[in-house]
């Protein structure tokens, strides 16, 4: 008898408040009675694969392990071609269909990694059709649930890579609800719990990207529950340490966005402690690479708390670690970007020390690395966004050096990148905020040149975007503080008390609700002084 995989938030057969409950309540598919799927379909005794097919598969897997994605794609395609020559009963067996869908998913992931997006889509479509059909007709088995989950998360990966963040969020939610429904029926199954945690991470990150901060935080808190439960059961398991640390990072980032900076720091330090344990137990490039996002998060938090010594400390160790990885593995995906990130952070520290020449040196190296990445991957959203950041930052340094034509040229380049990316992904709030930053920096340049009308035009464009973001992401303290900043810029350029008063009203509400970070308390004095200066004139 078939059962419907559709349950509402917290409305599960498991205990109320269980971290294993589906979130969205979206109906998925109907599942038949349980099936028995071996862990490796090609070795099923009832439908054994020929030796030459097994050999081809092992060769393809070996090529993938050697991090040769393009060669691995062609090797896996040879396996699929070989499967087409199987006898019909073997070709249509549960295990062969399972392996075929798995291989297509791996191919799609490799194609996404190498930016061959148009080739990845049909592979994922075929994999999903087979995976869902198997789950529908054969029923519960962990490998089948995992396969359907992986197809959906790989689809989300591809959608994110091409800038379709709204579609990626939907794919991530589908994956999470699928696994959560099964986990609620089997709350003691650790395999399902681990699978659920992976889908929660995808879903929370996707929700955060599209501005649903409160939804992301709800998912993230359930995620940390699941991963800490697993870590408690296996305290020496390196993989579970790594998984729990990822949840801590996400909680930290969301706490930072809500203005809970002390909570954010506690979460980041917990993540750092876990990842340092992993590095001691399992040294190597993967463990070193895993430390980088923690260092980056700690730098960003220290910036927000105006703790510049900590900015320098974490940025330097991050740069040293990322340079070492890039030197040892120059072809590693993301290695040059990690170096660029920490160069940019150190540039900001030098800027705070009034050493603009040192800041420029760091930023030019970061810009060079990001230009190279963007030339290689012209359709890659991450590479393009990183290049946008690099142009904006070097433009800001040029402005401070009074090199205003060069500053405007760099910032205009950043602006054009943002405009093009928003055309491809109009619901992505991070991209919209990037564009507002470019407008504000152009406004700064025009103001320095004495062109107050041009400055005001750009500041108002930035304010318009930031109002829109705050209206969509109503729970984000960071979005509200961005509006306050833009109101201050417009007030300065227009010599208008109206914008200052509106900024004060927003800060008053944040303060009354306990959501205003302490470091922003001084903004009250700054705005009141601006109002007094206007009245004096």
Structure description:
The protein has 22 helices and 2 strands. Helix 14 (335-352) packs antiparallel against helix 15 (356-376). Helices cover 76% and strands 1% of the residues. The chain has 537 residues and is mostly helical. It is elongated. It starts with a strand and ends with a helix. The longest helix is centred in the first third of the chain and has 22 residues, at 117-138. 48% of the residues are buried. It has a two-stranded antiparallel sheet. It has helices at 51-65, 69-83, 88-91, 94-113, 117-138, 142-161, 165-185, 190-209, 213-233, 238-257, 261-281, 285-304, 308-328, 335-352, 356-376, 381-400, 404-424, 429-448, 452-472, 477-494, 497-512, 522-536; strands at 3-4, 30-31.
Mean pLDDT: 84
Strand content: under 5%
Strand order of the largest sheet: 1-2
What would you call the shape? elongated
Query: Roughly how many Å is the radius of gyration?
Result: 26 Å
Written as H for each helix and E for each strand, in order along the chain, the element string is EEHHHHHHHHHHHHHHHHHHHHHH
* Weakly predicted, low-confidence segments: 1-43
Characterize the largest beta sheet: strand count, sense, and whether it forms a barrel. Answer: 2 strands, antiparallel
Can you count the beta strands? 2
Helix % is: over 70%
Distance between the termini: 81 Å
Structural class determined from secondary elements:
mainly alpha
Oligomer: single chain
Total helical segments: 22
């Amino acid at each position: 008898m078939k059962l419907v995989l559709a349950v509402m938030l917290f409305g599960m057969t498991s205990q109320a408040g269980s971290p294993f409950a589906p979130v969205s309540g979206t109906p998925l598919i109907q599942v038949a009675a349980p099936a028995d799927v071996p862990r490796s379909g090609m070795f099923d005794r009832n439908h054994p694969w020929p030796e030459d097919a097994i050999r081809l598969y092992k060769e393809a897997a070996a090529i993938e392990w050697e991090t040769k994605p393009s060669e691995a794609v062609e090797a896996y395609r040879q396996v699929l071609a070989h499967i087409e020559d199987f006898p019909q009963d073997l070709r249509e067996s549960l295990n062969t269909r399972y392996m075929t869908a798995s291989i297509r998913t791996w191919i799609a992931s490799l194609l996404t990694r190498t930016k061959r997006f148009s080739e990845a889509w049909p592979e994922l479509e075929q994999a999903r059709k087979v995976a869902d059909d198997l789950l529908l007709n054969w029923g519960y088995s962990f490998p089948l649930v995992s396969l359907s989950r992986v197809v959906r998360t790989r689809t989300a990966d591809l959608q994110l890579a091409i800038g379709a963040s709204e579609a990626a969020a939907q794919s991530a939610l589908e994956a999470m609800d699928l696994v959560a429904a099964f986990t609620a029926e089997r709350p003691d199954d650790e395999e399902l719990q681990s699978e659920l945690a992976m889908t929660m991470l995808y879903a929370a990150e996707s929700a955060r990207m599209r501005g649903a901060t409160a939804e992301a935080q709800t998912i993230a808190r359930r995620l940390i529950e699941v991963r800490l439960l697993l870590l408690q059961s296996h305290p020496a398991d390196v993989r579970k340490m790594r998984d729990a640390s990822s949840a801590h990072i996400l909680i930290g980032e969301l706490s930072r966005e809500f203005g809970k900076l002390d909570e954010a720091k506690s979460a980041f330090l917990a993540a750092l402690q876990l990842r340092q344990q992993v590095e001691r137990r399992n040294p190597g490039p993967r463990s070193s690479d895993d430390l980088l996002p923690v260092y980056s998060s700690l730098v960003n938090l220290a910036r927000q708390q105006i703790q510049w010594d900590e900015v320098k400390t974490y940025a330097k160790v991050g740069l040293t670690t990322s340079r070492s990885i890039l030197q040892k593995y120059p072809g590693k995906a993301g290695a040059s970007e990690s170096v660029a990130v920490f160069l940019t952070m150190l540039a900001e520290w030098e800027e705070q020390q009034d050493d603009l020449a040192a800041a420029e040196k760091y930023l030019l190296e970061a810009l060079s690395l990001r230009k190279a990445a963007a030339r290689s991957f012209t359709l890659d959203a991450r590479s393009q966004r990183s290049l946008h950041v690099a142009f904006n930052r070097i433009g800001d340094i040029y402005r401070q050096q009074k090199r205003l034509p060069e500053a405007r040229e760099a910032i205009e380049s950043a602006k054009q990148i943002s405009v093009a990316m928003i055309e491809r992904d109009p619901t992505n709030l991070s991209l919209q905020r990037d564009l507002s930053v470019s407008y504000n920096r152009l406004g700064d340049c025009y103001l320095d040149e004495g062109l107050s009308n041009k400055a005001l035009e750009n500041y108002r464009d930035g304010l318009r975007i930031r109002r829109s973001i705050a209206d969509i992401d109503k729970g984000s303290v960071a979005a509200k503080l961005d509006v306050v900043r833009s109101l201050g810029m417009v007030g300065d350029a227009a010599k208008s008390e109206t914008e200052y008063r509106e900024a004060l009203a927003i800060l008053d509400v944040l303060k009354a609700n306990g959501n205003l970070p302490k470091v922003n308390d001084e903004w009250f004095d700054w705005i009141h002084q601006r109002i007094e200066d206007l009245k004096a004139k």
